Structures are given as C-alpha cells and as structure tokens.
What does this fold into?
Amino acid sequence: MDEEKYTVQGFNASAAVAGLKKNGTLDLALIVSDREAAVAGVFTTNKVKAAPVILSERHVENGKARAIIANAGNANACTGDPGLNNARRTTELVGRGLGINSEDVLVASTGVIGQELDMHMIAGAIPGLIKALTPDAVPLAAQAIMTTDSFPKISSFTGRAGEHTYRIVGIAKGAGMIMPDMATMLCFILSDININSDDLKSALLSSVETTFNRISVDGDTSTNDTVLAMANGLAGNKDLSGEDHDIFAEGLRNVMWDLARMIVRDGEGATKLVSVEVKNSFSPSDALRAVRTVANSSLVKTALYGQDPNWGRIMAALGRADIEMREDGMDIWIDDVQIVAGGLGMGAEAERLAAEIMTRNEFSLTVDLHQGGYHDRMLTCDLTHEYVTINADYRT
It folds into this structure.
C-alpha cells in the first residue's frame, strides 16, 4: 500500500490492541488533527442509538473537533447510562492525554450490542495510542475498526483549490448490518482543505445520500452507523466557492462511493457485487422505493447467488413496492441481455445468456418501468450460506 497516498497534512493516527476483539488484533484507533478542524457528522436513523452516537452527535453541534477515537469489538449500544458514561470517559481520557477539551473528541464504536465497554482495557491502551501517533498510520486505523470485514477500506482524492493542493482521505468499515439510512458502518473522512463547517456538512449530507444511502448487504440498519468528516484548513486555500467547491464536493463523493463499493463487495459471505438501476419511474420517490425493494429482496439476492435469472422474483418485488407501475409495461435486463419485455419473459436463450453473465463477480440488473422520467440506483450483493454461518455464531 502506498502510505504517502493516504497521508493528510496536519493529521496523525495510530492503532492498538486493547483486547476488545476475540482474535487479539488491532481494535482501537485514534485520529488527531494538529489544529482545530471543521467537523460534520451523519449518524444512524435507528431509534436505538449507541452511546457513542449520542455523545458524538452532541460534540459535532459546534462544528469543530480535534480528534476521533474508535473501537471495534464492542458496540457500546443498549448499555444505558453506564454506556454513555463510558463513552464520555473515553473522550476525557483522550482529551487529557492530548491536552485538549474532551468536547473536541469524537467517539465511535462497533461490535457486539448489549455488552458494557471494558474501560480498563480502553484506559490502558490510550497512552500508547497517543505516543504512537504518526502521519502514515491512517491505514492502520482502517484495520483497527474492522469487525467481520475481510479487508480494510481506504480511499483518497487529491485536488486543487486555486493554487493550493489538498487531499481527501476516507476510511470505512462495514460488511454486515448494511442498509444505511445512514450500514454496521463507520466512516471517517479527513481533509486539509479550508472549508467552513456548514459547507462541509452540506457536502457530506449530499454525498451520504448518493453513496452510503444507496447500498445494501442485508437490509439492516445498525445502532452505531457514523460518518464523520474533519477538515483542518492547512492546505491554505481561501474560502471555498464556485468551481473549487464543486470539485471538492465531487472528490468527496468519489471517495465515499469508492468506500461504499468496497463495503458491498465485502458483504458478509458475498460473492457478487450487483448494480441495481430503475429507469423511467413516475417520480423520484417511486424510483427509490423500487430500487430499494429489489436490492433488499432476500429472494432476489439468493437468485443472484444461484446465478439464476429468476425474473419472476424481480417482478414480484416491484409489485409490492407501492409504486406506479403496469405489469405489461416493464422491461428487465442483466447487463445488456434483456430477459423481460412488456412483463413477459424473453425465453430460454435469453435466460441462458443472462445466467452466463451472472457467473461474474460484478454485473448490473436494470428495470425500465416506462412510467416517467426518473431513475435511481443501488449497489447490492448476493445472500449466501456463508452469511448465515457468520451471523449465526457472531457472539460466540
């Protein structure tokens, strides 16, 4: 891995083994900005919110932060007041060690729900984390936040604002409990661009909607979903506006889309990455309902695993999506092979060609509703025996 590609001016990171994971691997990450940074966050819409989500939502309200500490192996969710106290205690320990206000420290957790966080382990590891801070350890932080992930997820973008070069680096974790309305996913985005917190929040919200909110592994939304972006301004550019702002927003979206693809590709037990697109719907909301219903359908996803162009399952999913549609007005493709025209199958030869395409690791599924001019897309994966195996004994 090109470590230089993932450094951001003014940011340092570290990772440690605190003992929270059963396998004894890295499970605690720290990211620190040399100076106060603009910050924005997007959090789970689940009504059951983990303690770190509750606390970090409060800490980002003033639009500034200095550090993020994240642990894997324990979600610190459904832990009541003790859980909130432990999250707060974690920020205090980091703040004291760095000599900064604890309210400038954001906290995130991922792992098993319902177990109290072992603060002895956390407190014991924090001094070493602080001592080990270095600019080239962001990839290590990406490793430390993994749970059932099979590989660390990291992406970068380099742009220019006026005469000043800046970088955006994002890390994420996620493989299961993925159906964000904001997946269990964590994402931390770092940049040295100079941008105010309101503009950063606007760009982040827009990017989340078109990236992380357009992926599905298993249809579950976690208690801990967190996306945090920090920008410390050390690139030295003036106020971000016009074309420079648009380029930054596009770069941010590209990093997040790259991470989103990695999350779906790494779906627990997944063997297929499938782009599902709905075209020519009656309204934007219809397009989104339709594409989500198909992408989340367990029967569709198992057909993807079986490399079976079972278009009846797709038709059935669309029929229950509560959208404007006509059965005799729908067309369906697997990549460029049409398997349904006007609601009727195209025959055995078309299905044979589609089945060949479905042996690939990546392909597309497209539905044309012929109801209007709106479209939407999502990334999904297949549902496999391995997914059940992973989640059947997740706690043991």
The chain has two domains: 3-265, 273-392. The two ends are 33 Å apart (CA to CA).
